[in-house]
Amino acid sequence: MLRTLLLVGLGGFLGSVSRFLVGQGLHRYFDTIFPIGTMTVNIVGSFIIGVVYALAERDNLVSPEMRMFLAVGFCGGFTTFSSFAFDNLNLLKDSGFLYLSVYVAGSVFLGLLAVYFGTQIHKLF
Length: 125
Known about the structure:
By secondary structure, the protein is mostly helical. It is 82% helix and 0% strand.
């Protein structure tokens, strides 16, 4: 159990640091109030978790420990649905319904699409 906790913790640390770096990088590149960093990490994280679970189910290509490290740890630290909710509130207050609608619909639809593609990517190999 301690090994699993350490793997999840290390994955969470790496995911959180990655989220921060991606968010900062995108916000420097795109000068906008739109929360593109949060939306991007949610979509990428959804894709990664889809790939991890697909590979774990297919001939056990990902061990249970690696699945915990990647899906629970890294993706749990990388994706930001708490930040997503906060960004939604700020968009609603500051920018109105249009940005809020684009952000919510884009994050949910593209996230679902990314999970689907992630679960299908193993068919390419």
